[in-house]
Specification:
Layout (H helix, E strand, L loop, with lengths): L7 E7 L16 E2 L2 E2 H11 L5 E6 L4 H10 L5 E6 L4 H14 L7 E6 L7 H14 L1 E7 L4 E3 L8 E3 L5 E10 H13 L7 H7 L6 E3 L10 H16 L1
Parallel strand pairs: 1-4, 1-6, 4-5, 7-11
Antiparallel strand pairs: 2-3, 6-10, 7-10, 8-9
Helix pairs in contact: 3-5
Length: about 240
């Protein structure tokens, strides 16, 4: 149950085209195990008791599909499905303005998540919420198990970076709605298109706090990821 009266929302970004997979259907809408990938993502937030509002941003031709999928999967928390922009930053901005438009206030805690990370766990969601409550924001971070090399030309390593202090950033990224709205407006005023909500906040000087990620919270990016995703879903169906 919620520890306070602050509203908590999940904003799922589903506007990608899936170009790297060379699929006619974007990867978030690929059907695996009898359901599209985005259904598993929505279900994860639907199941969490602290999440009150679910919003999805996608390309306009997929809005009806998302709504139909939500109805078929009994997703009751989906309150709005919004048209995405030309890139992930514009889609984020549309989603944030959409949450404000349906009555969410500036103190609403918003978990911004990639639709193509369908295995976000209840523990990750809880960790993001608790970290944001305590420190004002959270990003999902996974300690690196690999060493890193820097190369400016892709041919030889110019610098070595030890893994001990390196983390890979996953989603959700969790901030107060008002903070995200202000940062989006500032980025637009500066003519800046950030790579992610995390990078935008960090580059605007915010102290960013980390919540624990998991290997299973991977992002479907390449064709081989679909086989991995299918294997996980098939195992779950057998358990």
């Amino acid at each position: 149950m919620k520890q306070d009266s602050i509203q908590i929302a999940a904003l799922i970004l589903a506007g990608g085209m899936g170009i790297r997979m060379s699929k006619e259907r974007p990867k978030q809408f690929l059907e695996i195990g009898g359901k599209p990938v985005i259904a598993y993502t929505m279900e994860a937030f639907e199941q969490h008791t602290d999440i009150e509002i679910l919003a999805v941003v996608c390309r306009p031709e997929w809005i009806d599909y998302v709504k139909e999928t939500a109805a078929q999967c009994r997703i009751t928390k989906l309150k709005t499905c919004l048209e995405g922009g030309e890139n992930s930053f514009e889609s984020l901005c549309h989603g944030i303005e959409g949450l404000l438009a349906i009555g969410c206030n500036r103190d609403t805690i918003v978990l911004v998540h990639d639709a193509v990370r369908p295995f976000v766990s209840q523990q990750i969601i809880t960790g993001n919420i608790e970290t944001c409550r305590r420190w004002g924001n959270a990003v999902t971070a996974l300690r690196s198990e690999e060493a890193f090399a820097y190369s400016s030309d892709g041919h030889f390593s110019q610098k070595y970076q030890s893994r001990e202090n390196l983390y890979s950033i996953q989603t959700p990224h969790t901030f107060k709605l008002g903070d995200i709205a202000d940062a989006c407006r500032q980025a637009k005023a500066d003519g800046y298109i950030p790579q992610s909500l995390y990078t935008m906040m960090a580059e605007q000087g915010k102290n960013i706090y980390m919540a624990s990620g998991e290997i299973g919270n991977f992002k479907l990016t390449y064709s081989e990821d679909v086989a991995f995703c299918r294997a996980i879903i098939e195992k779950r169906l057998l358990d």
